[in-house]
Amino acid sequence: MRSADGTQGSLPALSTLTELPSFDELSSSEGQRVAYVGACERAVEAGADKDELVMGCVVRLDRGYPAVLAADATFRAEFSTRLTKDGLCGRADSRAAVGDWVCARRPHGHDMGLIEEILPRESDIARWRGGARGERQTLAANVGLVLVVQQLGERPVSCDRIARSAVIARDCGSDVAVVLTKADRASDETLEKDVAAVRDVLGEGCGIALTSSTADGAQARRVGVCAARLDVPWGTDAVRELVPRGTVAIVLGESGAGKSTLLNALLGRDVLETGAVRASDDAGRHTTVARRMVSLPGGGVIVDEPGLRSLPIVGHERGLAKVFPEIAEAARECRFRDCTHTHEPGCGVRAGEREGRFSSRRLECYVSLAAEMRESALSLDPDVVI
Ligand SMILES: Nc1nc2c(ncn2[C@@H]2O[C@H](COP(=O)(O)OP(=O)(O)O)[C@@H](O)[C@H]2O)c(=O)[nH]1
Ligand SMILES: [Mg+2]
Ligand SMILES: [Zn+2]
After folding, report:
1. Which atom of ligand 1 is nearest to the CA of 254?
2. pLDDT tens per residue across span 187-198
3. Between 97 and which of 141, 234, 323, 383 could a Cys-Cys bridge form, CB atoms 3.0 to 4.6 Å apart?
4. Which pLDDT score, from 0 to 100, does residue 382 have?
5. CATH number for the domain harbouring residue 129
6. Does 212 sit in the ligand 1 pocket, CB within 6 Å?
7. In terms of C-beta density within 10 A (0-12 exposed, 13-18 middle, 19 or more buried), how is residue 72 classed?
8. What residue numbers bound the domain in which 349 lies?
């Protein structure tokens, strides 16, 4: 049902969302500001009044409906028919992503704005979905940091998941840091192994934080002592330090990894639904879940990602080379261009391994991600491989 202001159903009133960032917490690039001037000219040519136009940032998508934050207002917006007609974008819910800068029009006397143009992105965190008929799904735009959230437990942490998130992030032009949640569930011994594994796979330079939202004081003390011994930043402050003011980050992790619990702890109150909410990447279901920006008191801005069950990696070779530079370099010495680094003669990667140039764990991650990319490239419809 459409209401008078053009919205559908019950979208949250923007004025009640105190966790939204303020305009000065988000910064557009020089290129985007230049693009905005051009977008205004086109909108005026198409009949817009110049003083109805504003530059804004998409800070929420509720069931696909954008909310735009501009210098002096936050408002709901639809896409102008000009934008939809031009076919600049595809599906209804993937036209603008959270983090997109837009040229928007606020017709006098209307609450609802119109997005005239999406300004060019500086970066675009996107994943592949849909198997052989694949399409790219943008999770967030203009994000500088991906916080890979991975839960700890009795079993060893999933290095594969962390490595593939890092490959996607680096391919998309973003930095990476890792937050290991639910530290209370891991023994000291497991914690030590997990932290060593993450440092091995992503390098010592990668930001890392250990958290636990358990209310049990004894558990927290134990983890704190262990974190100090391992020299790993610990607690919500450690996460806040990874996302200082001026940074826009997205949390990436499986459903149930503890992302919403972590964000609520950072916000100091329960803004996000936890546990019971079953977020899904299934097309029919994820649209009911909001993607949104939240502003951390004393820190930067985080985009909450409802949770992804799968992170297929397709066409992220550049990202793979950025995360594993020394292995990618060794691969250039392979005799065969399509070497799988498993059994071929003259394999530069295996030679590098014999010389001890990289750990077997890094090598394993690299080889399996490279194999997955090769296979998915072969199975994909050639038309959609960009
Ligand atoms: N033991 C433990 N459980 C946690 C922790 N953080 C979150 N949980 C639980 O994990 C479940 C999923 O948390 P949620 O924040 O909703 O995960 P999300 O899907 O990633 O947003 C909930 O039942 C939480 O109570 C933690 O630090 N320790
Ligand atoms: Mg959640
Ligand atoms: Zn090789």
Report:
1. 20
2. 999 999 999 999
3. 141
4. 53
5. 3.40.50.300
6. yes
7. exposed
8. 324-384
